[in-house]
């Protein structure tokens, strides 16, 4: 994680320089604001990754002599058969369509979005304090 933190910190320096140059040269507030916001986002991510890298074990990406196989292993549990992301995507599509067509469509989108999020969060919850 150390290298990713450094990359984002260098990106934030670049974005700050470009924001100042662009703002001075173009006198256009929207693009200048966007570049300053991108600078803020990059520095937050870089600081977080650098801060977290001090508290976790050294990963294979921080070792210059590491192979691709050194980073192999279990990445986590991913649901193999969940329908919730599909319905969440449909609800999100209806919500964005409501902006173009009419806000009345949000009455159909919000229950679908909320039910999908509820179903996704509690998909593997069965009974009290059980995970499976």
UniProtKB/TrEMBL annotation:
Its main location: membrane. It catalyses: 4 Fe(II)-[cytochrome c] + O2 + 8 H(+)(in) = 4 Fe(III)-[cytochrome c] + 2 H2O + 4 H(+)(out). Keywords: Cell membrane, Membrane, Translocase, Transmembrane, Transmembrane helix. It comes from the Bacteria. The keyword Translocase applies. It is found in: Cell membrane. It is a multi-pass membrane protein. The keyword Membrane applies. Coiled coil: none annotated. Its EC number is 7.1.1.9. The chain crosses the membrane at residues 7-25, 31-51. Part of cytochrome c oxidase, its function is unknown. Associates with subunits I, II and III to form cytochrome c oxidase. Belongs to the cytochrome c oxidase bacterial subunit CtaF family. This is Cytochrome c oxidase polypeptide 4.
